[in-house]
Amino acid sequence: MTLDLLVILIYVAAMLGLGFYGMRRSKNREDYLVAGRNLGPMFYLGTMAATVLGGASTIGTVRLGYVYGISGFWLCASLGLGIIGISLLLAKPLLKLKIYTVTQVLERRYSPTARHASAAIMLIYALMIGAISTIAIGTVMEVLFGLPFWVSILIGGGIVVAYSTIGGMWSLSLTDIVQFLIMTIGLVFILMPMSISDAGGWNALVAKLPASYFSFAAIGWDTIITYFLIYFFGIFIGQDIWQRVFTARSEKIARFSGTAAGIYCILYGLAAALIGMAAKVVLPDLDNVNNAFASIVQTSLPDGIRGLVIAAALAALMSTASAGLLAASTTAAQDLWPMFSKRKNTSESAMTNRIFTLLLGCLVLAIALVVSDVISALTLAYNLLVGGMLIPLLGAIYWKRATTAGAIASMVLGSLTAAFFMFSDGLEANTPIYYSLAVGAISFIAVSLFTPRLATQPGLATND
Fold first, then answer.
1. Does residue 401 carry a pLDDT above 80?
2. Is the pLDDT at 379 greater than 70, yes or no?
3. Cα–Cα dist 277/182, whole Å
4. Residue 234: Cβ within 10 Å count
């Protein structure tokens, strides 16, 4: 265990060091929020993949693999397909806009009121994304090091808050590429083969696990469709993802490196599901299936190697936690704070954004201390995001008759519908996303048709 701790301490020190290096490059708002819009192919691929693959997609997919088998990969597959979709369909027009937030598109197409209403939804989503991965960081450290959960949250999450606040997107990009490499080596090339070997090899998995564990549909088509609706479309409208698209140096880099990142996410999901299947054979009677990942790491790996894989897991979790945190602070500083500040240019400086990152980082830590299930929390975040914002955003892009009143009605009613059915039917139910999209679409179309369309600035659909 001493060797494991040494490996992890080296990793943590490297992350903080890169955070301070990123601070030297973050001289203005553009540097702090979108890395100067100057990332090359490998940095862009690494930061996009690391942003998506966090607590739910690592710890959660291993858990799904433990419970359902190979079909647990659909969570990561939906995220990966979303990255491929946004890279091929939206990256080019997004880069031409030279903006910072998703909600700025809504302002261009509708009005400042639509921007502010959508920013409130986006802020909740981004905070939950940051909290989810912080929870997973705490879970890993609690199981492997025997620390109290709250101590694990404050240590692991505090590191994320520190390097995110210091250097912004440059720090995140530098740490993400290291985290991407560690994730790939630790989970795909070390933990997956060693856990399968510990289970007795592939033939032992086939012999000891039910046949359903090898079916890609065992998790249920209703769940697969729900994952697609929530995560695929959530990627299309998530501030954390758009903010990464804005960092690309060129449209070509955004398209090709983004597509490669999406394919990587799908393969990563397969690897995580296989680790969960191996854990089911090695540790068939876990009291808490949420600990499947940490338990198989503890059981199957020797000292030193275990530390590298723990660092890989922390890398996956920290990258997504930092992405959610920066997305939240960007939304707050660029979209919401100007409503309350007498000095309308306060969000221009990197210092203002650093202050928001620090304050919201403390809020993320507080949320992580009171929430437990990472997949349920991720579902809550994406249900609110997709249910409230997908329809108005698609309307902003594709429907000329859309109005501000229709967009706001769709956001409010879609979000409230998602919240109602999550409360009444549970976070794992399929009804919240189905009903919220239906209510959002009906209200958007009906209100838009009965209200006048005001003259607005060109939006995404009309930008040349």
1. yes
2. yes
3. 22
4. 26
Under DSSP, is residue 38 helix (H, G, I), strand (E, B) or coil? coil
Classify the C-alpha dihedral 451-453-456-461 as positive or negative. positive
Q: What is the pTM of this model?
A: 0.83
* pLDDT tens per residue, range 264-287: 999 999 999 999 999 999 999 888
Instruction: Give the CATH fold of the 2-373 domain.
Output: Sodium/glucose cotransporter (1.20.1730)
- Whether the per-residue pLDDT at 37 is higher than 70: the answer is yes
Q: Measured between alpha carbons, how far is 213 from 210 in angstroms, rounded to an integer?
A: 6
User: What's the mean per-residue pLDDT of the chain?
Assistant: 86
CB atoms within 10 A of CB 14: 16
Rounded to whole angstroms, the Cα distance separating 250 from 252 reads 5
DSSP 197-261: HHTT-HHHHHHHS-GGGG-TTTT-HHHHHHHIIIIIHHHHH-HHHHHHHTTBSSHHHHHHHHHHH
Q: Specify whether the CB–CB gap between 114 and 351 falls below 8 A.
A: no
What is the per-residue pLDDT for 374? 63
* DSSP calls for 128-150: HHHHHHHHHHHHHHHHHH---HH
Q: Is residue 189 pLDDT above 60, yes or no?
A: yes
| Pair of tokens at residue 142 | 């609690």
**Helix, strand, coil percent content, the chain, rounded in steps of 5:** 80, 0, 15
Higher pLDDT, 59 or 417: 417
Please check whether residue 56 is in contact with residue 378, taking contact to mean a CB–CB distance below 8 angstroms: yes
Q: For residue 39, what are the β-bridge partners?
A: 248
Is residue 134 within 8 A of residue 157, CB to CB? The reply is yes
Closest CA to 134 of 368, 436, 338: 368
